[in-house]
Amino acid sequence: MNTLSYKTRSVKKEEVNRQWFVIDADGQVMGRMCTRIATVLRGKHHPEYTPHVDTGDNVIVINAAKVRFTGNKENAKTYQTYSGYPGGQKELTAAQIRERRPERLVELAVKGMLPKNKLGNAMFKKLFVYAGAEHPHAAQQPKPLV
Which sequence spans correspond to the domains of the chain? Predict the structure, then answer.
């Protein structure tokens, strides 16, 4: 009789070993870069990925102001916000958001790719986006995300 055990092993949150990654958004295509970031935040790049546990790593994005859109998305893509009051719906293009808060473009794209629950909120808190090339996380010794 074979005594091998083929049970699926679920990782507990105490067993997760988080790493820090940095990605330079300069000249990268928005959607392709953000899907890679969302995968790392969820932990799907680890062999011990567990869907109901936050097994993801921390991600730092620098040069978010220099991210690239393909086609005419810079002017055609719109983002809607609604304050909850009558007349409180606003619609901004990607170019307008880039002028005001360029890091918000990456945040919105990644947030939409994560689960819409408490676990997704916990994953999103591990994302740090900066418009310029400097970031205050040098002490964590982040590795470049390939």
Answer: 18-71+102-133
